[in-house]
């Protein structure tokens, strides 16, 4: 049975578009899922697409903070399911980019009784509003919250750092994704340190990709600006002069929408950005 609040919203939805529903997962916590969700989402919105970000990380909810929208989260998906509000009231529009919205699933763990079916209906109703991308920020771990978050997705992005513990968990998650019918999976390697790779103290992005056997979406360098941007509630990709990780996130976003097929050189990224500009200008 459709939930009444959700059905009502679907009836008034905009033109149907082909929505891509992508879940951002990892296995190991703290590897950069939320950072990736905020930056990829913001980048894709800036490229002109309508994007809804879904914070499925209950309890450790922090996507709103990264986007600087924490004071505007009045309602969550739990309120919709309990009949307290409509979907459009829980979808918060970004102040800077109106084609970017945020939906939090729940503000506190006690009020979390979202089922897999509810989650699927909820995401279907968000898709029906005409978003090109619905990006779900997955909770840490691989329990019920993880299963709920991946079940509405057609695609997944597995985030890992170049550390063996994170890679092993990423491998496990890749297996679970496949077992749950998510076959379109890509890899994002975060917190890469080129100087450590040069010293043979860290696996390269390519090494990680080969270990996991998942197609690569991108490599994001370790960058102290990530922390600054988190504290400011302003995703890196909004900076006028992009930092290394900002460029890398932008490139990953372009690759996600199928607009770029090369990788930046993490040792000389600005050469990469020039190349990118040429690419855009000269086609
Ligand atoms: P997750 O959502 O997977 O738990 P977060 O996105 O919250 O991970 O990131 C965990 C921590 O790592 C945060 O403090 C964040 O600022 C930091 N972080 C993430 N990516 C980078 C990076 N590329 N460089 C430096 N710090 C990073
Ligand atoms: Mg997170």
Automatic annotation (TrEMBL):
GO terms for cellular component: cytoplasmic side of plasma membrane; cytosol. The keyword Plastid applies. Residues 22-236 form the CobQ/CobB/MinD/ParA nucleotide binding domain. The gene is minD. ATPase required for the correct placement of the division site. One of its GO terms (biological process) is negative regulation of cell division. It comes from the Eukaryota. The keyword Mitochondrion does not apply. CDD domains: MinD. One of its GO terms (molecular function) is ATP hydrolysis activity. ATP binds at residues 28-35. This is Putative septum site-determining protein MinD. Keywords: ATP-binding, Cell cycle, Cell division, Chloroplast, Nucleotide-binding, Plastid, Septation. Belongs to the ParA family. MinD subfamily.
